[in-house]
């Protein structure tokens, strides 16, 4: 039984985990229970961890610190979807705990697993039970308990796996949607797959991806830092770095600054404390911070961060970052030529190709953000599974990145209608966020598999209508769904209706859909546009 692991062995563990998730990605995708063709949890987790595997293969005999840091760095850049971002945060926490050590035993591994859990929970605003977070948390707790009994790495890791299996099985009972479908959480299953593959590596068994199996396109690395910036709601954007000169607890500084303003980010390590806070009294923030050490840098007013700590491999080049020519720019995630044209006409600077089943990575979003010649760049994800990936971008660029958490294309378009290119950030964020709440989104797609959801018996190939994020109805006849949605819109008293028809819909059929809405909603203004989007036959906005 293995007592410790070093850098080369950690590298092997991660490569094995990446290969196993890649092999099992379709099985993980199939655990998605919501009856639309968005089975992408396995794909997102695979592309995220394979970004790390690609970088690790370039390293020869790395130290444990270098191997773990490379893993965390690559996974943050390559993170896709919520499941991929959470997976990257688990490894980021593990990397933090392994910093400065040459070998990892059972006690340290248990602490590292817990550090990963803490990092993931800290990033998720409203953690829900019955998810990958639950599985990771309970596995880490069991690992800590086991490490007190036996300090061998393998013993502790086995205990974590055993508990992860129990926790995963219980996710079905913890999450109502999972219970309804009778399946376990896909992300939690992915974490278990990774842990089990690591154990195989410990025992000398390599997981090999079959030849010809598509592993996805893994991007090269780009610059990043640990600094995080949120949207501005107070007058002064105050940023500073302090050199650590005493043992005062930075948490006390965090508590003080939390009472002074918002958008607080405080990152500390052995040498420095980095702070970003929005406040009406920067003098109080600086005065309090002086107790912890000497200022290295101080920036006040609406100034973008000019210094970003970079972690780059020898083969990597600095990213191309457009010099600011204006204060504010906007990028958006969408797919379909027609929808992209709508966003461009509304003033969007950059288009990131992606959406349902095609979640762009943090790196994909970063590259477009860096191309925008603006100090501050707003990002419209237009999909709930892309929001977390977008929120990681600010830490990777000297530009100030503000994520407007749009969950649908209509929300993003409505937000852009309220965007003022000459307005202050606080005003724009408030106006765009408020505007998103005025629009209802309807979508018609198809069922990828047979299922039973919210009392609806769904058969593969059925048309599905979604109203917001809820299933509205199913039918073999798409006209039945269009009429039902139109009646719902009429009853809600909506006045403006825009219908975007997809790539698989002919214009003459789309016109019939528009005619249905015009007939049932005679008092509403009905517009028909070619969106060109895949997956969804119709995407409908009602205000």
Can you describe what's shown?
It is a single chain. A 6-stranded mixed beta sheet has the order 13-12-9-16-14-15, sandwiched between helices. Strands 2-3-1-4 form a 4-stranded antiparallel beta sheet. Strands 6-5-7-8 form a 4-stranded parallel beta sheet, sandwiched between helices. The protein has 543 residues and is of the alpha/beta class. The radius of gyration is 24 Å and the shape is globular. It starts with 6 loop residues before the first helix and ends with a strand. The protein has helices at 7-23, 25-29, 41-56, 64-78, 81-97, 106-123, 132-149, 153-174, 176-181, 186-202, 250-260, 282-289, 337-345, 362-371, 387-391, 409-417, 425-436, 478-492, 507-520, and strands spanning 236-244, 261-268, 272-279, 293-299, 326-334, 350-353, 374-380, 400-403, 440-446, 451-453, 456-458, 463-467, 470-475, 496-501, 525-530, 538-542. The protein is 45% helix and 18% strand. The chain is built from 19 helices and 16 strands.
């Amino acid at each position: 039984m293995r007592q410790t692991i070093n850098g080369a062995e950690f590298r092997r563990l991660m490569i094995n985990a990446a290969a196993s998730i890649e092999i099992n990605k379709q099985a993980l995708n199939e655990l998605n229970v919501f009856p639309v063709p968005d089975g992408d949890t396995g794909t997102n987790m695979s592309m995220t961890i394979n970004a790390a595997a690609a970088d690790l293969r370039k390293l020869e005999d790395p130290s444990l610190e270098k191997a773990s840091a490379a893993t965390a760095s690559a996974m943050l850049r390559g993170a896709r979807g919520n499941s991929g971002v959470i997976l990257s945060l688990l490894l980021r926490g593990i990397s933090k705990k392994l910093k400065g050590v040459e070998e990892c035993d059972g006690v340290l591994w248990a602490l590292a697993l817990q550090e990963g859990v803490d990092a993931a929970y800290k990033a998720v605003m409203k953690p829900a039970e019955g998810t990958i977070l639950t599985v990771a948390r309970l596995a880490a707790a069991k690992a800590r308990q086991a490490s007190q009994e036996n300090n061998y790495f393998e013993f502790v890791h086995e205990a974590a796996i055993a508990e992860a299996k129990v926790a995963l099985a219980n996710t079905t009972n913890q999450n109502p949607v999972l219970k309804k479908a009778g399946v376990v959480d896909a992300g939690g299953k992915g974490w278990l797959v990774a842990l089990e593959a690591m154990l195989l590596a410990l025992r000398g068994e390599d997981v090999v991806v079959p030849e010809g199996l598509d592993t996805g396109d893994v991007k090269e690395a780009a610059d990043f830092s640990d600094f995080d910036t949120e949207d501005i709601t107070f007058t002064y954007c105050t940023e500073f770095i302090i050199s650590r000169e005493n043992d005062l607890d930075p948490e006390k500084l965090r508590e003080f600054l939390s009472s002074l303003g918002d958008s607080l980010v405080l990152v500390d390590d052995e040498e420095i404390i980095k702070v970003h806070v929005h406040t009406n009294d920067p003098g109080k923030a600086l005065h309090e911070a002086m107790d912890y050490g000497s200022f290295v840098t101080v920036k006040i007013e609406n100034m973008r961060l000019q210094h970003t700590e970079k972690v780059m491999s020898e083969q990597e080049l600095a990213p191309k970052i457009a010099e600011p020519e204006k204060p504010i720019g906007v990028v958006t995630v969408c797919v379909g030529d027609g929808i992209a044209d709508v966003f461009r006409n509304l003033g969007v600077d950059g288009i990131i190709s992606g959406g349902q089943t095609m979640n762009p990575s943090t790196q994909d979003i970063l590259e477009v953000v860096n191309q925008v010649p603006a100090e501050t760049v707003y990002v419209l994800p237009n999909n709930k599974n892309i929001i977390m990936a977008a929120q990681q971008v600010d830490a990777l660029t000297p530009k100030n990145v503000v994520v407007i958490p749009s969950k649908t294309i209509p929300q993003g378009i409505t937000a852009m209608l309220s965007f003022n290119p000459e307005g202050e950030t606080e005003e724009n964020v408030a106006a765009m966020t408020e505007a998103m709440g005025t629009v209802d989104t309807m979508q018609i797609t198809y069922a990828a598999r047979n299922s039973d959801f919210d009392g609806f018996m769904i058969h593969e190939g059925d048309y599905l209508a979604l109203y917001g994020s809820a299933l509205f109805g199913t039918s073999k006849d798409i006209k039945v769904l269009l009429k039902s949605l139109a009646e719902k819109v009429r009853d809600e008293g909506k006045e403006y209706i825009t219908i975007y028809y997809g790539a698989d819909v002919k214009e003459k059929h789309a016109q019939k859909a528009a005619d249905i809405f015009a007939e049932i909603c005679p008092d509403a203004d009905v517009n028909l546009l070619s969106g060109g989007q895949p997956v969804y036959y119709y995407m409908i906005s009602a205000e």
